[in-house]
Specification:
Rossmann fold, seven-stranded parallel beta sheet, 20 helices
C-alpha cells in the first residue's frame, strides 16, 4: 500500500529521531532521549521517564486526527525501531501492543492476524521475519524458541495490565504452560538469584524463587510498547504499569494528547483532507418540526439520495459504496423501554413500520447487544444501512460507509452526538469521488438550532484531532437545505473600471539565508535557539517580597489547625512548609517555557532564588509561602529576557545580511487566494 505524503513525513521525522537516539544510546548516555531531542533542537520540552529497571525510557507521541491511519503508522514506526535502537534484536522478541477499549482491540487483532492486510504486510516488509500475534488467552503457549526466532506481538487491553481486580491479577500470578520454560528450573536457586539481580523488579514467590508469571515474562523481554489512544493512559497507575514492564520504548498514538505528552510529530486535519482521507465539510441539519419522526424521515431521504449517487458512481468506476446512517438514541437497555425516552427498539420499529426500511438493513450496537459483531460491513453482499446506538461507537469504530449521523439524544446533555461525530469522517477508499455529495458527511439533530449545534460539532472535531474554525461545519438547517450565500454586485457605473485578474498576488515574508538557499524565518530555530539563559540580567531580580511574605504568613496561619485547637504557628513554620529545594523543583516543572530544556529552566529558577535570598534576608526556608507570587514574576522576567535576546539575534541576522524580506523564495512567499 502506498503511503500518503503526511505518513511519509511522519516516518522521515521519526527515523531522524530514532537514529539520533541510537547514537546517544551507543555512547552509554543515561539521558539519551532527552539529549536526542535537544540535539535535534525541538521547540518543546521533553519529559523524561524511566522504566522499571531505572533505565531511560524513550517515550513519544504521534498526534494524528481520527481517520489518519494511526495503526499503519505504528507498524511503520515499529519497523524503524527494530532497524535503529532495537537493531541488536534482529527483528525478534516481544512487542506489547496496548489498546484502550474492546472495539479497538478487536479491530487491531483482526487486522494484524490477517496475513493479507496491509498492517501485517507492512510489518513483514520491514522486518523480514515471521510474525506471531498473541492474546492473553493463548500467550501461555509462547516458547523460548519462538521468542528468539519470531516477532511476537502481544495484544492486550490496558485494563488487563493494572493490578486492580481479581481478573487483572491473573496477569501477575504464577503461571503454567510454556511460560515456565522462560525461567530457570525451580531447584536452581542460584540461577533465580542471578536473574533477580539482572531484572531487579521481578515478582518473587519467595526470596529465592522468581514467579513464573506472564507479567514477569514481559519484564524479561523489555518490550517496545505501542500505546494506542495514548491519552487514555494518563493515570499514574497506567503509566507505572507500562514503565514496570521494563519497556524499551513507548510509542503513543493519539488524536488529542494531553499537554505534558512528548508530541514528536503532529499531523493536521488539513493534511488528511488534502490526502482525501476524510469526508468534510460536515453538514448539520435540524428537524424543522420538533419531532424525532421528522428527523428520521429527513435522514432516510438523504440516505436514499446518496445511495442513488453511489449507484451511479459504481456504474462509472466499479467502486462500491453503501451509504449508512448512525442513529444515536437516549436509551438501549431492556429495562429502560417505555420510560419516556427514545429507545433503540422503538426507533427500529419506526424504521421498519413507518419508513419501510427492511429489518435486515437495521442493526443495534450497544454494550449488551452487538448485531454487527462478525459482519463485514464493507462487503457488497452486506445489507446493513442503519446502525442504532447510544455510546457504544464513541471510539475505535470507523466505517467509511457511515455518512449520516442522526442524534435523537438531548444535545444539551453531556452525552450528546458530539461523542460519535468522528465515526462518520472516514472517506471510502481514501479517495474523493467526482460527486461532491459523496465527499461530505451529514448530521441531523433534534430539538436544537443547528447554529448552536455547530459549536458542539466543532468541539467534537477538535476532540478527534481536527483543530481550527467552523470552516468545515456547514449549517444546512434553512429551507431548501442550502447554505445561505450573500452576493454583492458591482454598480454599473464602476464596472468598466474592473477586470478579472488572471495572475497571482504574493506577500513577502522574512527569510534566512542558509548557504545558497533561503528558508522561512522560524522563531524557534533561528531566534530561540540563540538564547543563552546564563546571560539573563539576574542583577535585575531585585524584587522586594516582604509584603508578600507577611501576607502569606498571615493567610497561612488562619488556615492551619493545631492538634486540639486553633493556634498560631510561628515556631512551627519549618515543620509544615515545603523545603526550598522542593519549591525550586516545582517551579522548574511549572514555568511555562517548553522551548527551554529542563536544565535551563532549573538554572533560571536557581539563579532567581539565589538573587532573591540576597535581596530578601527572610526568604530562605520560607520560599513555599510565596512560590506562586515568585513564579508569576519569574514568568515576566524570563519573557522579557528572552525577548531581548531574540531581538538581538534578529538584528544580528539583519546586520550579517542573512535576513531578507522579499518574494524570490517560493517556499517563503505567501499567496493571497482569489
Amino acid at each position: 500500500m502506498e503511503l500518503k505524503k503526511y505518513q511519509e513525513r511522519v516516518i522521515r521525522e521519526i527515523k531522524t529521531f530514532l537514529e539520533t537516539l541510537a547514537q546517544e544510546q551507543a555512547k552509554g548516555n543515561k539521558h539519551a532521549a532527552y539529549d536526542a531531542c535537544k540535539e535535534l533542537k525541538f521547540s518543546w520540552l521533553y519529559h523524561q521517564r524511566e522504566n522499571g529497571l531505572g533505565k531511560d525510557l524513550p517515550t513519544f507521541c504521534i498526534k494524528v486526527p481520527t481517520g489518519g491511519g494511526k495503526t499503519l503508522l505504528a507498524t511503520q514506526i515499529l519497523g524503524l525501531a527494530y532497524q535503529t535502537i532495537l537493531k541488536s534484536r534482529n527483528g525478534c522478541g516481544l512487542v506489547l501492543w496496548v489498546t484502550p477499549s474492546d472495539q479497538i482491540y478487536k479491530d487491531t487483532l483482526k487486522a494484524l492476524k490477517d496475513r493479507s492486510h496491509f498492517y501485517r504486510q507492512s510489518l513483514e516488509i520491514w522486518l523480514s521475519r515471521r510474525i506471531e500475534i498473541w492474546e492473553k488467552t493463548d500467550v501461555h503457549r509462547l516458547t523460548p524458541s519462538q521468542l528468539q526466532s519470531n516477532l511476537n506481538i502481544f495484544l492486550l487491553q490496558l485494563a488487563s495490565t493494572n493490578r486492580e481486580s481479581r481478573e487483572q491479577l491473573k496477569f501477575f500470578r504464577d503461571s503454567g504452560g510454556n511460560i515456565v520454560q522462560h525461567f530457570p528450573p525451580e531447584d536452581e536457586a542460584e540461577a533465580h538469584e542471578k536473574l533477580k539481580e539482572k531484572i531487579t523488579n521481578l515478582d518473587m514467590l519467595s526470596d529465592e524463587l522468581v514467579k513464573t508469571s506472564l507479567g514477569n515474562l514481559v519484564r524479561l523481554c523489555e518490550p517496545p510498547v505501542i500505546l494506542d489512544e495514548g491519552h487514555k493512559a494518563t493515570s499514574d497507575l497506567a503509566r507505572k504499569t507500562i514503565e514496570g514492564f521494563n519497556a524499551s520504548i513507548v510509542v503513543e498514538l493519539s488524536a488529542t494528547p494531553p499537554k505534558e505528552t512528548n508530541v514528536l510529530v503532529r499531523v493536521s486535519g488539513k493534511e488528511l483532507l488534502d490526502e482525501e482521507m476524510i469526508k468534510l465539510p460536515m453538514n448539520i441539519s435540524n428537524s424543522n418540526q420538533n419531532s424525532w419522526e421528522a428527523c428520521l424521515g429527513q435522514a432516510r431521504d438523504k440516505r436514499e439520495e446518496l445511495a442513488r449517487i453511489a449507484q451511479k458512481y459504481f456504474q462509472e468506476t466499479g467502486q462500491y459504496i453503501r451509504p449508512m446512517v448512525l442513529v444515536q438514541v437516549e436509551r438501549t437497555g431492556k429495562e429502560q423501554e417505555g420510560k419516556g425516552f427514545l429507545h433503540s427498539e422503538q426507533i427500529k420499529d419506526h424504521l421498519i413500520q413507518k419508513l419501510g426500511i427492511p429489518e435486515a438493513a437495521i442493526k443495534i450496537k450497544t454494550s449488551e447487544k452487538d448485531d454487527i459483531e462478525g459482519i463485514e460491513l464493507l462487503d457488497e453482499e452486506c445489507p446493513v444501512e442503519w446502525i442504532i446506538t447510544k455510546a457504544a461507537l464513541k471510539e475505535g469504530w470507523d466505517c467509511p460507509f457511515a455518512y449520516i449521523l442522526v442524534s435523537l439524544n438531548n444535545t444539551g446533555s453531556q452525552l450528546s452526538m458530539t461523542q460519535i461525530v468522528g465515526r462518520v469522517l472516514r472517506q471510502p477508499y481514501a479517495k474523493r469521488t467526482p460527486h461532491p455529495e459523496l465527499n461530505e458527511s451529514y448530521v441531523f439533530c433534534l430539538r436544537r438550532r443547528a447554529a448552536d449545534i455547530a459549536l458542539q460539532v466543532k468541539k467534537a472535531l477538535e476532540d478527534e484531532g481536527y483543530e481550527g474554525d467552523l470552516a468545515s461545519v456547514v449549517d444546512r438547517s434553512e429551507e431548501g437545505g442550502k447554505p445561505q450565500i450573500r452576493e454583492t454586485r458591482i454598480r454599473e457605473e464602476y464596472r468598466p473600471l474592473y477586470k478579472k485578474f488572471e495572475g497571482k498576488v504574493y506577500l513577502p515574508r522574512f527569510c534566512v539565508k542558509e548557504g545558497d538557499q533561503y528558508k522561512p524565518l522560524d522563531y524557534f530555530r533561528h531566534l530561540i535557539s540563540q538564547v543563552d539563559v546564563s546571560k539573563f540580567n539576574y542583577a535585575g531580580v531585585d524584587w522586594d517580597i516582604a509584603d508578600d511574605l507577611a501576607a502569606a504568613r498571615e493567610s497561612f496561619y488562619r488556615m492551619t489547625l493545631g492538634q486540639d485547637e486553633l493556634e498560631r504557628l510561628e515556631e512551627k513554620e519549618s515543620l509544615i512548609l515545603e523545603t526550598d529545594e522542593k519549591v525550586l523543583a516545582w517551579m522548574t516543572a511549572n514555568l511555562p517555557f517548553e522551548y527551554f530544556g529542563q536544565r535551563e529552566i532549573g538554572e533560571i529558577a536557581e539563579r532567581i532564588y539565589e538573587r532573591l535570598c540576597a535581596v530578601n534576608k527572610d526568604l530562605k526556608g520560607r520560599l513555599g509561602l510565596v512560590k506562586f507570587a515568585i513564579k508569576e514574576r519569574a514568568v515576566g522576567f524570563i519573557q522579557r529576557e528572552t525577548d531581548l535576546q531574540t531581538q538581538k539575534a534578529f538584528e544580528e541576522l539583519f546586520d550579517k545580511k542573512r535576513l531578507q524580506f522579499y518574494l524570490e523564495c517560493k517556499e517563503c512567499r505567501f499567496e493571497i487566494l482569489g
